[in-house]
Amino acid sequence: MTEMPAPEGGPGVRPEAVPGQESHDVDVPAGLRDFMAQGWAPPLAVVVEQAPWAPYAAKRRAALAARFPTEALVIPSGTLKVRANDTDYRFRPGSDFFWLTGEPGEDAVLVIRPADDGASAGDAPATLYVHPRSDRSTAAFFTDRRYGELWVGPRRGLDEVAAVSGLETAPLAELPAALAQLGRTRVLRGYDAGVDAGVDATRDADDELAVVLSELRLIKDDHEIAQLSAAIAATVLGFEDVIRELPRAIRTSERWIEGTFDRRARLAGNDVGYGSICACGPHATTLHWVHNDGVVRPGELMLLDMGVESRELYTADVTRTLPINGRWTEPQRRVYDVVHRAQRAAVEAVRPGVDFLEPHRVAMRVIAATLEEWGILPVSAEESLQKDSGLHQRYTLHGTSHMLGLDVHDCASARSETYRDGTLAPGMVLTVEPGLYFQPDDLTVPAELRGIGVRIEDDVLVTDTGRRNLSEALPRDPDEVERWMAALLPG
Ligand SMILES: [Mn+2]
Questions:
Q1: Which domain holds residue 321?
Q2: 469 closest CA partner among 456, 483, 484, 482
Q3: pTM above 0.85?
Q4: What's the CA-to-centroid distance between 200 and ligand 1, angstroms?
Q5: Cα 358 to ligand 1 centre (Å)
Q6: Residue 307 is assigned to a structural domain of this protein
Q7: Digit-coded pLDDT (tens) for 437-448
């Protein structure tokens, strides 16, 4: 619980210091405080049923506890982040914490203790420390802008969080004493400075906890795959919204595209999973174009890299490059066809047992061969594909795949031998997203291709026998793209 420091005494001081107030807030005289402390009906329970994800989260906690059977594990959800002055970003819990608890609130901390001798790791006792409901006998409930329920709305209390999550809960006020009593402990650092300072642990042991969490998250369970599918289905709707709104985007700017997708993300999910890239014309050659403030010109391409984050915080990550007026020009189609061929071959390369990097190698072979054919590469494709050359990367710029889940770049702390240099296994979900980017001022490229950037990105589940393209429903075949856009573009 954060309380604002009480103001110093002196001339012009407020009648009574109250927690969480800002300089522009109204004074709170003692009579008002007393009046506000009474006359309220008992608080209604917010939610009381166990959530569908609760059994999955319990299995995940057991899997984690089994890796550290003799140690306590401390995983915070994170704290509110200031956007500017006294306004915060809307809170989004840390992904590891959420994966283990499903609890959305800020400042919460999961503590898993070692199971008693002889018990299995599945029985490791776990407690979730959370903010209690506001105490209406104190002023904080109506003066504290960050935590007062009158300011920010009702939250789940201890009993409700316990019912929803299936976890034992305790008030955050008891956390410092509980942390002080733990034996050997690992903490997921970097989320909550107060917790980091309150746990005596070593950096290496803590890093290993982050690695294990990332590696456990590599394989998605059924619930996670359903969540990713829901996020992708909403993303498809968002792309359709954008095409329908193109005339207004042309009259305004890329901002209209971003706003249109944002609206779908809020309506169907929690938010966008990452800053949308709405890159029209040559902006498509800037990999992370997130200014989204440029003009939308018929006759040019738009590269849209956008993903809805579901209500349970799983995100899609899909890219389509589309002709703004619904029809490809010849040079646009020439570049698109290469990326499309590379992307199709890379998706087909996804199967259990192959290297994580195999789809990338497949895509780069297709693109390098074409760049040689077009006379753009100064060396042969074969030479360029050697590890110590890589000249084609001037035009491809990035890797082809990353893991996808709660984070858009999921499992980021996994060791290279289990991720980048590892092999694909059933239950993994990865993106396949080759691109080809000809910078507007790149003199090594024929003039008619300069300023064209194309990326095609799908979200692919590794199955027992091969793959399932979870974003199959979003058209990528160039002829199909024209038909799809014609059906959606107004008049
Ligand atoms: Mn991606």
A1: 222-488
A2: 456
A3: yes
A4: 37
A5: 17
A6: yes
A7: 999 999 999 999
